[in-house]
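I am writing to request your help with a piece of structural work I have in hand. Here, with my thanks, is the record as I have it:
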Amino acid sequence: MQLNINVTEVILLGLTQDPSRKNIVFAIFLLFYMGTLLGNLLIIVTVKTSQALGSPMYFFLFYLSLSDTCFSTTVAPRTIVDSLQKEASISFTECIIQIFTFHFFGCLEIFILILMAVDRYVAICKPLHYMTIMSRRVCGVLVAIAWMGSCVHSLVQIFLALSLPFCGPNVIDHYFCDLQPLLKLACSDTYLINLLLVSNSGAICTVSFLVLMFSYVIILHSLRNHSAEGRRKALSTCISHIIVVILFFGPCIFIYTRPATTFPMDKMISIFYSIGTPLLNPLIYTLRNAEVKNAMKKLWRKKIVSDDKK
């Protein structure tokens, strides 16, 4: 692959150029990012330290919170810093790294959500064989495959982008580096590359969303044979997962299934899935899950007792 890159620095226009509005952006992103870190790290610590949360569902929840934390971290800290500056700039190399990590952890979250749907399907539809099918070893292998698949997806994106010559201008009308805004800096026809990128990201988002929704339809249909208490518990868990899926995939499908097309609202929609969903996930999974809430209460009590002994 031959590279012809003259652009060494990229200017990010951000969400606004108005100084007073930049302060609002700073406050919102800082608040959301701190909430994301607090919520997801609390889930990570709780799942790791609680013996009651040893089932495969919470094993996958651990990795969902980890991917949420990393996914938000690829965008939020730089946006927070950039909102304090008159002109935000990023080197071309850092821009490419941000694109890679953003798509890596975004794709990882998609795969983890699919694994969580598979886990719920087996737990509800094959309860007698659940522990055999979803053994610790199998879950570990599935997560490893998710990591490798995410890496392949991101590398394909980067290689496709770097096959183009970038010779200016060097201004991106976005608050972080993403592929479609970056391709506007290329000084050659990008239609084919854009089509390939859409067939990559767009297909992953759309197909995964359809697979997930279909799997939950099957799960919900199978609940008719369960007891009232079993239906209530399974329904609560599935509704939490469905809410997460819709909130995450809706904006992603809107952004990544349009070749060579951008709208003014794209930046606002990107906010929702880049920092909004990672904040909402821990709230949804804790507020709607009694086992997680109980484990957090026990963890908090242990912390108080240990502090009192000191």
Remarks:
- The radius of gyration is 21 Å.
- Residues 9-309 form a domain with the Rhopdopsin 7-helix transmembrane proteins fold (CATH 1.20.1070.10).
- The mean pLDDT is 85.
